[in-house]
Amino acid sequence: MIRLYYIVKKELIEMSYDIGGIMVCIAMPTVFILVMSLSMQALFQSHSHFKIDVIVVDHDKSTESRNFMDIVKEIQHLNMLRLDSGTPVDAISKDIASGDHKFALIINKGFSSYIGDINKGPEHNPVSMITDPAVQLPQQLLVKYQLENEVARLKLTTFLNKNEEMIKLAGIKKENVIKSFDELIKPTYAYKDKQEVIIPSAAQQSVPSWMVFALYFIVIPIATIFIAERNNGTLTRFKSINISPGYLIFGKMFSYYIVGMFQIVFMLCMGRFIVPLLGGDTISLGNSYLGLYLMASCCSFNAISFGLLLSSASKNYMTIGAIGAVLNIILSAIGGVMVPKFVMPAFLQRLTYISPHSWGIDGFLAIMLRNGGVRDIIPDCIFLIITGAVMLAVSGFFIKKKMV
C-alpha cells in the first residue's frame, strides 16, 4: 500500500510542474464553456431579447401594406428597419450582399389586391424576401414561415372584416377564428420524472460537451510524465525494486482519476456559479448525484485508459502529443461536442456511436437535462467501461515490455 501511495504522490507532483498540461486540461475548456454558454444563450432562451434585423421596403404604399408593416414591427424576435419606399431592389440586394444586414422584406405592388381578394393566389409574389446566403437554413426558415403566417393572418382578417354580417349570421365568431392562430402549438419538454423543472439553456447543453472534451486531453500530461519516466530510466528502476506493471498502472489510474474528478467539479462549478455571474444561465445538476458521480467516473476511466494506451504505445512525446490531440478533436467532432448530434445527417448520427465522447455526453445529458437516474446511464457506462478496460489491457502489455 505504501508503494501505491508514493506512486500517486509522484504522479501528482510531476503533473503540478506541467503548466502546459494544466492549461490544456483546465484553462482551454473553461474558455470554451464561457464563450459558448454566453454567445449561444439567446438561441436557447424562449424569453431572450435576441432579435433579427429585417429591412422592410413598401412598394405597394397601401393601407394593407402599412397594416402588415405594423404587424412585422410587433413580432417578438424581428427588428424592423424601414427604408424609403423608393429604394430600388438592386440597392437592397447590394446591402444584403455586403453583409450589413441578413434579411430584406419587399412588399411588392399588388399586395393590397392579394390581401383584399380571398380567392387570389400569390402568383406574382406579393412579398419578396432577400436573404444573405451565409445565413443558416433554420434561421432563414424561421423568418420565412413567421412572415408567411402573418400574411395569411392579415388576409383572413381582411376577409372576415369585409363579411362581418354574413359571418355573424353563420354563427361564427370572428375573434375566435383569429385567436385560433395564437399559441396553436405549445412546446413542452420530456423528463424522466414527468415534471418540467429544467429549461434547456446554452450552458446546460455546452457544459457536458466541453467537460467530456476536456477529460480526454488528460493524454497530454500522461504522455509528458510517461515519456520522461522511460527516457530517464524510472521504469527500469521500478522493475529493479520489484514494483509490478499492475502497481504502476493502478497508481497512475488513481492519480489521474483524482485529476479528472477535479476537472469535472471545476467545470460544473463554472456552469453553476461563474456563468450566471457573467449574465448567462446556470445549469442544473439533475436529481441523481450518484448517477452524476458514476457517469463522471466512467468517463474519467475511459479517458485515462485512452491516454495510457497512446502514451505506452508511442516512442516520443511529439508523436503522442500530436496524435492524442488530433484523435481527441476527431472523436469530439464525431461524438457531438462541436456540433450537437440532433442537427447531424442520419448517417453521421449513426457514426457517433463509435466515439466514447458521444456516450459520455449522452450520459451527462440524461442526468443533468432529463432528470434521469443510474438506470438511464447503464448502457453509456457499460460502453465506457468495456472500451476503457480493453485499452487498459493493451496499455499493460506495452508497459510490461518497456519495464523489461
List keywords for this structure.
4-stranded mixed β-sheet; 2 domains; 4 strands; D-Maltodextrin-Binding Protein, domain 2; mainly alpha; 404 residues; 64% helix
Quick summary:
The chain has 2 domains: 2-42 and 199-402, no CATH class; 49-179, Periplasmic binding protein-like II (D-Maltodextrin-Binding Protein, domain 2, 3-Layer(aba) Sandwich).
Description:
This protein has 404 residues and is mostly helical. It is built from 18 helices and 4 strands. Helix 4 links the parallel strand 1 and strand 2. The longest helix has 33 residues. The model has no long low-confidence stretch (mean pLDDT 79).
Record field, number of beta strands:
4
Mean pLDDT over the full residue set: 79
**Strand neighbour order, sheet with most strands:** 2-1-3-4
- CA radius of gyration is 29 Å
Please provide the ordered H/E string of secondary-structure elements. Answer: HHHEHEHEHEHHHHHHHHHHHH
Structural domains: how many: 2
What count of helical segments does DSSP give? 18
Helix content range: 55-70%
Shape label? elongated
Class of secondary structure makeup: mainly alpha
Low-confidence segments, given as residue ranges, are none
